[in-house]
Design a protein that fits this description.
Largest sheet: 5 strands, mixed
Order of helices and strands: EEEHEEHEEEHHHHEHEH
Distance between the termini: 11 Å
Structural class: alpha/beta
Number of helices: 8
Number of strands: 10
Strand content: 15-25%
Length: 267
């Protein structure tokens, strides 16, 4: 039995999970998802680490491997570090064994990963540095519209005439939204237009990596946005990509899960 902890340090949140592994059997024991909010990521990661240990009733000496991923390579108490594409691929397999590709949609960028049934990465592609396909961009738009982030997906699904958002630059896209509001475009139609624009950019990555088997698993901070998932699936049909985008209630933890599992394997 191996006890391992996975810590996924993102741009907006730190996800921490504790697993007990016995061969191919995994037991998820504890988890945390903490927003950084201008706090020191190193201090926040340490606190999350201590709290999952407390939740599991374990001592630090009882952990065989602490694995970091994302921006966590400078976490001093970790045992080792894994690349994000590797951890999200393995976490996706754990949460949905039919996954053969992943769309990791984070605060600052998006990434498409193709993997085999064991979580081995075959190829990947990322969005550009521009933030218009990211969680931070969508958060800024929702703040401007006065809408809570957990309401975005449902509102987007209520759209009856989505407004076209063509700008690939986040600054210009935000200007587009300001103009839409001044023209009286409804929030659902604005949000669906934004989702469709984001989905188009993300699905192009899937086309490049030739995601044509199993299902495409959504991970990262935007994975539970049902409106965005609808737009992604519609865009996949339009681009004739023969897979379906799916999520899981624990999709945001995929990177941390993969880190914990790979850590146990490395140990």
């Amino acid at each position: 039995m191996t006890t391992s902890i996975g810590i996924d340090v993102g741009s907006g949140c730190i996800k921490t999970v504790l697993f007990k592994t016995d061969g191919d059997n995994y037991e998820w024991v504890a988890r945390r998802n903490d927003k950084i909010r201008q706090r020191d990521p190193k201090e926040l990661a340490r606190r999350a680490y201590d709290e999952v240990l407390e939740e599991a009733g374990l001592k630090e000496s009882e952990v065989q491997y602490t694995a970091t991923t994302g921006d966590g390579e400078n976490i001093e108490f970790s045992t080792g570090h894994f690349y994000s594409m590797t951890t999200h691929a393995r976490g996706a397999i754990y949460l949905n064994p039919e996954s053969r590709s992943v769309l990791d949609m984070g605060a600052l960028n998006g990434r498409a990963v193709k993997m085999d049934e064991h979580g081995k990465v075959l190829t990947y592609r990322m969005t550009s540095q521009c933030a218009s396909g990211s969680g931070q961009f969508l958060e800024n738009i929702s703040r401007y519209l006065g809408i809570a982030q957990n309401e975005i997906g449902e509102l987007s699904k209520q759209a009856d005439n989505p407004e076209d958002v063509s700008s690939i630059c986040a600054v210009l896209a935000e200007t587009d939204v300001i103009n839409m509001v001044s023209r009286g475009i409804s929030a659902p139609n604005i949000l669906r237009g934004i989702h469709d624009s984001m989905a188009g950019r993300l699905v192009k990555l899937l086309r490049v990596i030739k995601a044509n088997e199993g299902v495409t698993f959504l991970s990262g901070g935007l994975a539970l946005d049902e409106g965005l998932m609808d737009s992604i699936n519609a865009s996949m049909v339009k681009m004739k990509i023969p897979t379906k985008a799916v999520n899981h209630p624990d999709s945001p933890y995929a990177g941390a899960i993969g880190a914990a599992i790979w850590g146990a394997y490395r140990y």
